[in-house]
């Protein structure tokens, strides 16, 4: 029987010491536990830290997009060399997988990506994933590695996504970690602050957004820290960090690809009536749309948000942004067919 898929995402702050230098003891501990878990799971490791590793080589580094690209290009091989060194002690070869948006948005390319990862696992190879910062278009970049890890988890039908962060879990307003969250509701959203580490891109807002997406598609998510000798095992047992309970999801492979892997170039904010209709598996009519954001063509995928700006799904639209904007007050015009909509 094929092993279940486990995606582990390591943030910059949990694997680095001062000023972005990678912590060798942390990488050594990570390697030891992943080696143990690999007997039970097919594992994808999404690792940040490339920019932090490489920025020391950029003179008078200011963090511009071009400098980040250059730093990532220098830092990625340094990062992979460290992983290679410590995983070799367990006879586990590692593969560097630098991904871009089109690897997920193009169905044919995604199938090739999936087949390649299956070849890794069949041969005992651990894929270590990061974004290909050097060539990624600024408009099509992943917002951060939380998003990349979530797309990996959805695309490979993972049972669990573990997101490691320096804060160790999701905290309430008294800074206490909440052990289990059955559903991300307004109370949970109210605890979120926009703080983030100086090294990473994403804060807890980002993590919660993608946690909600993964959980809505049937994936258990754990946000945890790296304390202790076996933090991943403890997380999987509900003893480390915060566990977000997955919801029941009966989606076909194409629907999961649409929900998790497609490029979203824009956003449609829909009214309450449209939200109810979408949950009944109805098509989206332009009259139910309150706002159009972004530039997108007919046939491209956009996010759907409710009036409280919560992402409720994605849709492959039949009209471009301008045509939808011009049809907001007209009845009977279809913006997206029900078969091309996934509601979370």
Helix content: 25-40%
User: How many strands in all?
Assistant: 15
Which structural category fits the helices and strands?
Answer: alpha/beta
Return the average pLDDT rounded to an integer.
85
Strand order of the largest sheet: 3-4-2-1-5-7-8-6
Distance between the termini: 29 Å
Structural Rg: 20 Å
Give the H and E element order: EHHEHHEHHEHEEHHEHEHEHEEEEHEE
Major sheet: size, sense and barrel closure?
A: 8 strands, mixed
Number of helices: 13
Relative strand content: 15-25%
Shape call? globular
Low-confidence stretches: 194-202
Report on the structure:
It is globular and about 65 Å long. Helix 7 (145-155) runs parallel beside helix 9. The protein has helices spanning 12-15, 24-37, 50-54, 65-87, 102-105, 107-122, 145-155, 186-190, 204-216, 231-236, 253-261, 272-279, 321-325, and strands spanning 5-10, 42-47, 94-99, 126-131, 160-164, 180-181, 220-224, 242-244, 264-270, 284-285, 289-294, 301-305, 311-316, 334-336, 341-343. It has 344 residues and is of the alpha/beta class.
